[in-house]
Amino acid sequence: MIGTGPFKIVHYSNQLLILARFADYFRERALLDRIELYVAPKLVGAKKMYDVAQIQADHATHAKRFEEKGSSYMIYNLNRSGPLQDKWLRLAMNTAIDRNKMLRELCGDRYSPSNSFIPNNSERRLKAVGDAKRIEECLGRSVYQGERLKLYYFNHQPVAVDAAWIKNALARFGVCLEPIPWPMDQFYNDQFVENADIILGGEVLEENVELGLIHLFKDQSGLIRRMLDPKRLARVDQFMDLFIQAGTAKMRQEAFEQLERYLNSEQLLIYLYHSRKEITFNAALSGIRLNAFGWADFSKLWIKPSSSAEKLIN
User: Fold this and answer.
1) Residue ranges of the Solute-binding protein family domain (predicted)?
2) Class of CATH domain 7-64+277-313
């Protein structure tokens, strides 16, 4: 692998990635000489902790909290025949999932109910949910006859909790879900999409939100392009073409809002909630800057001088 960044890869395996300072980097010298990143799938969703083990004893920790740009959501497999082709059933399910109640009961990193991939848009467009009379009316007009629907989710604890809560919320109205865990490393397995009626997913947009939205809706390996049928994808692409071709940020915003209005009107997915994360740092670390994914910019991190640090250096 060839690049021009402040670090180079010196070791890579399924369990460990080691980066070392790249001496020929064309800008300033990286403040860290070495970074070790361990793969720990069982810790997905756990809080991140940046520590300096050798000087841990006489330093406290401090935390930074940030709100992710993006949303968790459920998306229907509209390439499969069955009751989910019926918009009335999709509308009933959307109405039955009370996001505010979900957040009150589950807490954790879930901080705001969602009606958009962009948190600011959710605040303007949230609608009432949980209307039992409306849910029963929609189910009565649907073709649903109690069929068991397979809800696939990625196999780590916070998502499993979401899946169980959603199953119970829909069961109150006679909609039967079967939650099925799926390993994240099998995301690209065709059986994942072929067998699922619904997938519980999430999207965190990158620093450049507009590029993140293009990736979300145009990436052939992403859930949206794998779950929507060709006719609806063609409609999505019309909106995204307007978004990409727009000459100003305001025009791109308007194009994306048109796209999300289409997604909502057709009930193609169910937005759930926005998340916030808390990252903990050893107080000896300074220069902390977090990116859109909650990772610190390692090239800016440095260790404050202290008695322990001096001992470490010596």
Assistant:
1) 1-124
2) alpha beta
Q: Structure pTM? A: 0.76
Q: Residue 158 carries which side chain, given as an amino acid letter?
A: P
Strands (E), the chain: 7-12, 16-21, 34-38, 48-50, 61-67, 70-76, 110-113, 148-154, 176-182, 198-204, 269-271, 273-282, 285-286, 302-303
SS3 38: strand
Q: Which CATH class name applies to 67-274?
A: alpha beta
Give the closest residue to 162 by CA, choosing from 179, 149, 150, 148. Answer: 179
Count of residues in the chain: 314
pLDDT digits (tens, 9 = 90+) for 150-198: 999 998 889 999 999 999 999 999 999 999 999 888 888 888 999 999 9
Domain spans in the chain, listed from the N-terminal domain onward: 7-64+277-313, 67-274
123 sits in which H/E element: helix 119-125
| Phi, psi for residue 12 in degrees, rounded to 5 | -145, 130
Q: Can you tell me the distance from the alpha carbon of 2 to that of 25, in angstroms, rounded to the nearest whole number?
A: 12
